[in-house]
Design a protein that fits this description.
The protein has 5 helices and no strands. It has helices spanning 2-6, 13-19, 38-50, 60-63, 65-95. It is elongated, with a radius of gyration of 22 Å.
């Protein structure tokens, strides 16, 4: 998936800081929670209250909004295709 692969790199912290010319700074940190939906939103809200202006926390859902939207569209389309197949099969059974 291009959008995901485009923004992801696995490297050491020192190499990343050198590539981005950050010195000893970092772009961000990642926090893992036990509850991926409610826990992420709770932690993000809590962090946003404590972080200074210019810094903000994002949840995984906010960062992957386009992907989640595409999955929702696919889910809806598959539902209608399945209903259509069931209706056609029912008419086929009734006609015999």
């Amino acid at each position: 998936m291009f959008e995901y692969d485009f923004g992801l790199i696995f490297t050491s912290l020192e190499t990343a800081q050198e590539l981005y010319d950050l010195g000893t700074a970092v772009h961000g940190i990642e926090v893992t929670t036990d509850d991926p939906i409610a826990g992420a939103q709770t932690v993000a809200r809590s962090l946003n209250k404590q972080l200074p202006p210019g810094l903000h926390a994002q949840t995984w859902a906010e960062m992957n909004k386009r992907l989640l939207g595409a999955i929702q569209v696919e889910k809806t389309v598959m539902f209608f295709i399945l209903i259509f197949i069931i209706v056609v099969a029912a008419f086929g059974i009734m006609s015999t």
